[in-house]
Amino acid sequence: MDTISSGLNAYVDQISRVGGELAPMVAKGMILLLIVLFLVKYLGKVVAKILIKYGMPERKAAYSLTGLHILVLLVGALVVLNMVGFPGALLFRIIMVIVMVSMAAYIIAKPYIPRLPFKKGNIIQIGDSFGIVDMISVMYTRIRTFEGKVIYIPNHKVLNDQVTNSSERPNRRLDIDFFIPYDQDLDKVKEVVGKILEEDEIVLEKPVPRVVIDRFSPNYMEMKARFWVERKHALTGRWGLNAKIKESFDREGIRMASPRLEITRNR
Question: Which of 15, 27, 97, 242 gets the most CB atoms within 10 Å of its CB?
């Protein structure tokens, strides 16, 4: 009995001695780990904002941020493990091998990595979703629609769907359709609408604006005013011109027709 008791006491003393030696190192390691996690969370946000501010696309900034997170965590793990007695030199060599292999794999695979055909702030349409790109992450793209909705689209779906980027080119073409009865003065109609397009400040001089007959219908001519504007006027450019055309037609006595839907019954 005395032998068992003395052995148990010796075992407890050994545990206490080891605990007393390791406890400070574990405590320091935990504190350092918390500091590393804090840096990863908050320093990463600051770095991402700086990269985007200086022109880096948001998706590349997200990849850079992920790489920074991994690097900080590896360095933190190296220091913590070194504090608790793990051979630091061996761990450093392992980390360097991982980093070099990862860099080599990225350089080789970079030409084959698909890129999203837009950036933050672009006006795009993906499927039925139309709006402004609000955020781009590694996993998804966030679109803010003009109705105030927020849509999250996985990037793999973006890469496999048709994407229309309305912000890719600096200028956009707009068309205004209106309907004129056959008894109206066609030359006068073209003159009035052409003058409006010529004088309006949002309409670009080149390509030259045109007023044409698009097609003939049984009761009226379907006419079209075609012109180009800067991209910022693409969504609202028609509104003011529509009002000017209507006011000028009323002032000049030009009558517009209303499109008709004819329904025929087969007997």
Answer: 242
How many residues make up the chain in this entry? 267
CA gyration radius, the chain: 34
* Model pLDDT for residues 212-249, shown as the tens digit of each residue: 999 998 889 999 999 999 988 888 888 999 999 999 99
Domain architecture of the chain: domains with CATH: 2-112 (no CATH), 123-165 (2.30.30.60), 171-252 (3.30.70.100)
What order of strands is seen across the sheet that includes strand 163-165? 150-154, 140-145, 129-136, 123-126, 163-165
Distance CA 255, CA 241 (A): 17
Q: Taking each helix axis as running N to C, give the angle between helix 44-53 and helix 58-83, from 0 to 180 degrees, rounded to the nearest 10.
A: 150
One-letter identity of residue 254: I
Q: Show the DSSP H helices in the chain as ranges.
A: 2-38, 44-53, 58-83, 88-109, 155-159, 186-199, 237-252
pLDDT tens column, 50-78 = 777 776 666 666 666 677 667 766 776 66
